[in-house]
Structure formats: C-alpha cells, structure tokens
Amino acid sequence: MKKLINKPEDFVRESLAGMAVAHADLIKVEYEPTFVYRADAPVQGKVAIISGGGSGHEPMHAGFVGLGMLDAACPGEVFTSPTPDQMLAATQKVDSGAGVLYIVKNYSGDVMNFEMATELARSEGIRVLSILIDDDVAVKDSLYTQGRRGVGTTVLAEKICGAAAQQGYDLSQIADLGRRVNTNGRSMGIALTSCTVPAKGSPTFALGDRGIEIGIGIHGEPGRERIDIKSADEITEILAQSIIEDVGYSRTVREWDENQGQWVDVELSNQPFQSGDRLLAFVNSMGGTPLSELYLVYRQLVAICERQGLQIVRNLIGPYMTSLDMQGCSITLLKLDDEMIRLWDAPVKTPSWRWGI
Fold first, then answer.
1. CA distance 143 to 155
2. Helix (H), strand (E), coil (C) string for the chain
3. What is the dihedral of CA 235, 153, 318, 56, to 10 degrees?
4. How far is CA 111 from CA 66, 71, 181, 213, in A?
5. Which of 38, 46, 148, 219 is catalytic?
6. Residue 67's Cα: distance from chain center in Å?
C-alpha cells in the first residue's frame, strides 16, 4: 500500500485537522466526540441540517458544511458509521431552537445510530426530524441495507435542503422537500478497481485485469454482476438505461411522527421518468477516475437523455461522493421542479462548493 498517511489509526483525525486549518473561516472541528460544524453556528432562527457517515467518501459530508448546505457533519472512521454521541453533540452545537433535520443515507449502521440520536436529542427538548436517502437502483437489498442504498442523491439533497434552510423554510417544509428530492433521484455506479482502506492496507476486493463490477456500492459492496471491461459509451449506456428504465419503486421507511411522539412507518413511492422531464445529471468519480473520463461519460449521457426526450437543465461532474482511491463512477439523475432549480442555484459557500457569492 502506498498512501500519504502517518498511522492508519490517525488517518481521519489528521485529515480533519488539515481541513480545519485550510478552511478556518468556514468550519470548526470537535474531536471528543468528532464532528465538523459551521464556524458561525448556531445560526439564529435557522433550521440546522446535519448529515454524516463513514469517512472515505470525501468531500461528502464534511466538505459540504457551510452557508447554504450543512450546519454539521459527523464523520465515522473509514467506512464505519458515526456514533449517536457524535450526532447528539453536533445537534447540541448547531441547534438554534428552530429544529434540526438529519439527512441519512440508507445504510443499516447510519440509520440505527441517527434514530438513536433523534431520540436522545428529543429527550433534551431539541426538535429533530430525519429523512432517508435510498436512491441506488442497482440492488433492492444489499449486505448493509434493507432496501436500496443511499448514494449520489444524498449530495443533491444536502444542497437543496441546505438552501431551503438558509432561505427560512421551517423544519417540516424542509423534511417534505427532502423526501421529494429522494423520491425523484436515482443512481447507479460501477467499479473498475477496488479501493484500499488504510487500516487494512490491501484492496478490499479483487476484480482482475479486465473485470468491472456493475452496480457496486460506495463501500465496495457487490453490485448486479461482474463483466469484462467495455467502452465508456457502453458502460454509460448500461448505467443510464438502468436508471431511466427503473420502474416505480415503493417502500416503507421509519420516520419520527411529532404528533404521536414515536417512530411510524411511512410509505414512499417513485414514479418513472417521462419524456419532457427536466433533470439534474450528476456524474461522480469514485475517487480514482479523472475528470477527463467523467466528461466522456457525460457526453454519452447527454445523448442518451436526448434520445429519451429527457432534458438535462443542470449538471454536476466531479469527485463528490468517493470511495477512497476506487476507480469508477456513478450516475445520478434527479427530476427537477422549479423550486428545486431555484434552490440548487442558490448561493453556497463551503470548503468544496462555492457559487453565487
């Protein structure tokens, strides 16, 4: 293993320390327990947005802490869920009294720990709601989830919900918006190589010289199938068509019901994309794939969407939800409405994204 590390056990802490120094005007970091938060938190009168998950997917989530996105992020160890005490401490730090929304990727550890943090925060009188992101069309269930995994749409939900909070939406409004983003977003990814987790020091799985994994998860979880390498256009066709042709998806998720004061089952459904839909197209590097290759994918994705009558009106291309040094990419398509477009375009100022300011 060749990596820029000192000790594997210090990897996350030292990375966050460097990030805090590099962006001292935007963020601060606590280490006991660990979380990243806006330097100006709490922002009075504003709903706070918190997300988190295992480290190794940077810039998500810590890189999106700042004006117009997250108020705090809770990073676990590499590919390991953060703990409820991290989430509670972050909640206490950024809550201004207007409430807190958790944006949670559908991975079992994240879901369980954010649920525990919700109950702990509510026992202290902090109003907390959560929404689940489960947008990965590759597999219905996986090694670490019941239902679809939460992947690329998480990044888009953090931006859109973060902008809504910045503009004064209340907690219930932002939660409704987050659910709408989730049910209109779909993703799928591929791996060309494995990644290497610093604590392990060797690739987490083997693909061989010509093998690729279609529909892989962001921790290297198995996808739909392993096939021999194909051209960029052929791979894009596989990913895009799997997303576009995905039929309506219904599932039951658990959410906190404020009226009943308990967890309840909520039914959510996706509707298939239709000709004329306006889309945000997100082509994401898994960490080891250069931007030049992502543009090849985007070029073909545009052609496929045009052929289907789908309009790409916004795009995002780059390494925003990575898996350490894994080579590969993912595609996310989000059906947009006027409100989502306005919120996507709203100003943002974080360590990783800055526009409109």
1. 22
2. CCCCCCCHHHHHHHHHHHHHHHCCCCEEEEECCEEEEECCCCCCCCCEEEEEEEECCCCCCHHHECECCECEEEEEEECCCCCHHHHHHHHHHHCCCCCEEEEEECCHHHHHHHHHHHHHHHHCCCCEEEEEECCECCCCCECCECCCCCCCHHHHHHHHHHHHHHCCCCHHHHHHHHHHHHHCEEEEEEECCCCECCCCCCECCCCCCCEEEECCCCCCCCCCEEEECCCHHHHHHHHHHHHHCCCCCEEEEEEEECCCCEEEEEEEECCCCCCCCEEEEEEEECECCCHHHHHHHHHHHHHHHHHCCCEEEEEEEECCCCCCCECEEEEEEEECCHHHHHHHHCCEECCCCEECC
3. -100
4. 24, 19, 18, 26
5. 219
6. 18
Q: Per-residue pLDDT for 81 more than 80?
A: yes
Alpha carbon distance 27, 17 (integer Å):
11
Identify which of 112, 181, 193 has the alpha carbon closest to the alpha carbon of residue 152: 181
pTM over 0.90: yes
pLDDT at res. 140: 81
pLDDT value, residue 150: 96
Distance in angstroms (rounded) separating the CA atoms of residues 282 and 280: 6
| Percent over 70 (pLDDT), the chain | 100
pLDDT digits (tens, 9 = 90+) for 244-285: 999 889 999 999 999 999 999 999 999 999 999 999 999 999
Which residues make Cβ contacts (< 8 Å) with residue 322, sequence separation at least 6?
56, 57, 58, 59, 60, 218, 284, 285, 286, 287
Side-chain half-sphere of 196: how many Cα atoms within 13 Å? 11
What proportion of the chain, given as a percentage, has pLDDT over 90?
91
Q: Annotated catalytic residue: which of 23, 38, 46, 57?
A: 57
**What distance in Å separates the CA atoms of residue 330 and residue 239, rounded to the nearest whole number?**
8
Catalytic residue status for 219: yes
Laid out side by side, the sheet with 27-31 consists of 27-31, 34-38, 72-78, 48-55, 100-105, 128-133
